[in-house]
Fold:
Amino acid sequence: MCEIGDIIVIEKYKDGNHDLSKHSFVVIQDEGGCIRGLSFDIIALVMSSFKDEQQRLRKMQYDNFPIVPNDRDLTEGGNEKDGYIKADQFYFFQKANIQYRVIGKLKDDILLLLFEYIETELKEDPKLIIDNLKA
Amino acid sequence: MATRNAKLNFKKIIKNGKVISTKESLRDITPIPWNKDVLNGNKKVVITEGGKDICAK
Structure:
């Protein structure tokens, strides 16, 4: 069970014939729907860490939402690393077809900032990733 | 909680969305290395800061 704003780690999902695992996502929609004839019940954004400062500067030129988990009281157990949410790529999933666990959440004000960013500041139309959905 | 009830207007946002593959989308993504306590559910992560102002950091 997950809800909007939750951070989930997906244990395993499909990329063509390959299994991918352990990517973190932020849930931005937890209601079912249909896209291109395929049903889904989660839309999520992938999270990434920065490899180095050069990559950070490059990534922040694009539609990426920075995150800084720097409140030690609240992020105990976190990794103290900065990263970003790839805000212009929407991943559609069916919960029944993925193994995931909820590992945390975005604080409410950050979630609202993220939504505002998506609605008003994306430079390009979001890309849709639907190849994890089954007909 | 009101904030958790916040919704994006997806019909408006994705009306011209282009479909790409998972492989293409994950190019250059570095999975976040959460520690064991997080991954086994003993501790929860809460993201408390974000936003454009941090880009300049």
Chain B touches chain A through 47 residues (CB under 8 Å).
